[in-house]
């Protein structure tokens, strides 16, 4: 499959220290069961991808949204729910204990996610919603 081939090729690129995970829309208005409509995005119709990239836009890993995302099937990786599981899947590409900094938005940020990735030496900076302001990590 072409997506699997592209992911494998992107994973060969050496990563920078500062990384980001977010959603990205690939414009598409044709007929497809995977097409999404997100009214708050600039590109409202298309295929939604979850992307791991650096500050210059270099993509290191991605996967298309296909509905509910299942947990990572590796021992020691918890099931943290759909949004955090998306981060965990992409974080599998990040080398452990190299002090990578990962930037995410409030849809992904959760205390269990931050705690789990910290055990792998991946540090998170994420926005949170005011009603979820539950912690500050000091290094």
Features:
139 residues, six-stranded mixed sheet, 20% helix, 6 strands, alpha/beta, globular, single chain, Nucleotidyltransferase, domain 5
Structure description:
With 139 residues, the chain is an alpha/beta fold. It has a single domain (2-132), classed as Nucleotidyltransferase, domain 5 (2-Layer Sandwich), CATH 3.30.420. Helices cover 20% and strands 27% of the residues. It has 3 helices and 6 strands. It is globular and about 45 Å long. The N and C termini lie far apart (42 Å). The mean pLDDT is 87.
Radius of gyration computed on alpha carbons? 15 Å
Q: How many domains in all?
A: 1
Assign the CATH topology.
Nucleotidyltransferase, domain 5
Report on the biggest sheet.
6 strands, mixed
Average the pLDDT over all residues and give the rounded result. 87
CATH first level: which class?
Alpha Beta
By CATH, the architecture is named 2-Layer Sandwich
Distance between the termini: 42 Å
Q: SSE order in H/E notation?
A: HEEEEHEHE
Unreliable stretches: none
């Amino acid at each position: 499959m072409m997506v699997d081939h592209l992911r494998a090729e992107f994973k060969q690129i050496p990563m920078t220290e500062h990384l980001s995970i977010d959603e990205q829309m690939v414009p598409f208005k044709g007929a497809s069961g995977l097409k999404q409509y997100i009214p708050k995005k600039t590109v409202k119709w298309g295929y939604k991808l979850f992307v791991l990239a650096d500050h210059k836009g270099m993509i290191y890993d991605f996967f298309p949204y296909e509905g509910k995302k299942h947990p990572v099937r590796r021992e020691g990786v918890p099931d943290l729910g759909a949004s955090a599981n998306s981060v965990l899947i992409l974080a599998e590409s990040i080398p452990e204990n190299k002090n990578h900094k990962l930037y995410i938005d409030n849809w992904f940020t959760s205390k269990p996610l931050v705690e789990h990735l910290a055990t792998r030496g991946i540090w998170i900076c994420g926005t949170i919603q005011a009603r979820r302001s539950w912690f500050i990590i000091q290094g």
